[in-house]
Amino acid sequence: MNTEKNIVLTGFMGTGKSTVAEIVARQLNRPLVDMDLEIEARSGFSIPQIFRRQGEAAFREMERQLVHELALRHGLVIATGGGALVDGDNREMMSQHGIVICLNASKADIRGRLAENQHRPLAADWEARFEARRGAYAGIRHQIMTTGRSPMDLAADVLALAEGALYVRTPDGGGYPILIGSGLLSRIAADPESAGLAGQVVVVTNETVAPLYGEALAAALPNAKLIIVRDGEPHKNLDTVRAIYDDMVRLGADRRTTVLALGGGVIGDMAGYVAATYMRGIPLVQIPTTLLSMVDSSVGGKVGVDLPQGKNLIGAFKQPRRVLIDTDVLTTLPELQWRCGMAEVIKHGLIAQPALLEPSLWQPEEASCLLRQAVQVKIDIVEIDPYENGIRAHLNLGHTFGHAIEKSTNYAVPHGEAVAIGAMKAALLSRNLGFIDDNLVGQIQKILWQIGLPTDIALDPYRWYAAMSTDKKWQSGTSRLVVLKGLGEAAVVEGLPREDIMAVL
Length: 505
Ligand SMILES: NC(=O)c1ccc[n+]([C@@H]2O[C@H](COP(=O)([O-])OP(=O)(O)OC[C@H]3O[C@@H](n4cnc5c(N)ncnc54)[C@H](O)[C@@H]3O)[C@@H](O)[C@H]2O)c1
Fold this sequence. Notes:
- By secondary structure, the chain is α/β, with parallel strands linked by helices.
- The protein folds into three domains: 6-164, Rossmann fold, CATH 3.40.50.300; 177-333, 3-Layer(aba) Sandwich (Rossmann fold); 391-504, Up-down Bundle (Dehydroquinate synthase-like, alpha domain), CATH 1.20.1090.
- 46% of the residues lie in helices and 18% in strands.
- The chain contains 20 helices and 16 strands.
- The chain is globular and about 85 Å long.
- The protein binds nicotinamide-adenine-dinucleotide.
- Residues 206, 208-209, 212, 231-233, 236, 263-267, 269, 289-290, 292-293, 296-297, 300, 302, 311-312, 329, 332-333, 337, 340 line the site of nicotinamide-adenine-dinucleotide.
- Nicotinamide-adenine-dinucleotide binds next to helix 10, helix 12, helix 13, strand 13 and helix 14.
């Protein structure tokens, strides 16, 4: 018996539901039901005829009956009529055995699309209906903004969601999937169309990742060019960005070109910044290849580069179209980079998801499971606070202590190790403030040691404190630190007396 979930595409008229559903059904070799066509076939009348002869209420009843019938079947690709899932019961029914995805478009886009197609019975008063239906559609978890995107590209998102991708909702009313799994790069190479990468693509990577994965990927994509930059944080700057712009112009990249960022956080941030600014913004797909970039930098839309005066001083918010995480690339990751990524995973565990602190989840064969849980922590935070005005600060647990270590040692201590020490200091501070007990502090220390991460450093406390107080997170000279209120619960404390902080340094 077929037990696969139905894939249900809904949304306002003119958002491309039927076209995208057709592509998805073809790609998955699944039966397609276009509800409006089905109702026409069964009744023997066109939709305008049904509206004229029997009225809208009769049509809605036919729709309701069809929803109830289809919702009980499996393995279908369904394009609903524009109003079918405005009804709460219909939405509920479809969600029981299906993944419901709402396609969105801007008003201007819908106006243009409806002008091309006059036979829709409700097209005349569409603006009033658009407003009336907005609330019902907004309640659907998976939203995809269709404006300016090709049906094939949209179908790639739907295919990813149907496969169980995680999903991040973005402030523009859309969102993007994060696909996590083994063998993803080989699958993209074998079928670039399903991954939405058959069009013009510029793969931006570095000299380390290019021979490992970049060259093969660019060769496998039908319209891809490769841009290789130098490896390392010292090259995450405007000179490298300028060099990438030059290459893009030379290669003929235009507004339809997708930037594919293949590498760690340095490449993701820098190529993302290029995508945010080249021709006022072009599509971005992130393929993170370090543990840190998988669980942290590729999700949430922060992109940017360093200035000589400080890290990440130039930047933008640029949401990717898609994040594709192939767990296999972790096999070539140097041990140090794995440990540094684990520092961020543990941080996610401490602030929101204690399951991540369980050593059995750190085994290579559990990579997908670990990543799904760690990435979900970041998703939950950036959905609430996309522009970093509030709760996103919790992701900085240990970072103010850590950045100061990096600065004071002239970056001799790697970021992840500095964050681990910082997390330990934050735990000690939380205990001193009476939020957590000695037992939990001991547990955190043991976890960090098990991974091979340090929990302290011989650094002059006065120098350390001075470096912390220049952190950009400290506002107008007032300390601002993330502490633990318990396991899986973080909070920001401001204006702590200097002695309290010095006591843990
Ligand atoms: N945008 C954000 O929200 C955000 C969040 C956290 C960190 N960051 C940024 O991320 C950067 C750090 O990222 P990172 O830790 O990934 O460092 P990185 O990008 O420098 O990668 C670390 C090293 O691993 C190599 N590498 C990458 N993938 C590999 C693979 N699969 N096999 C072998 N080697 C591989 C890289 O070439 C590099 O030498 C910093 O610039 C930081 O500011 C950004």
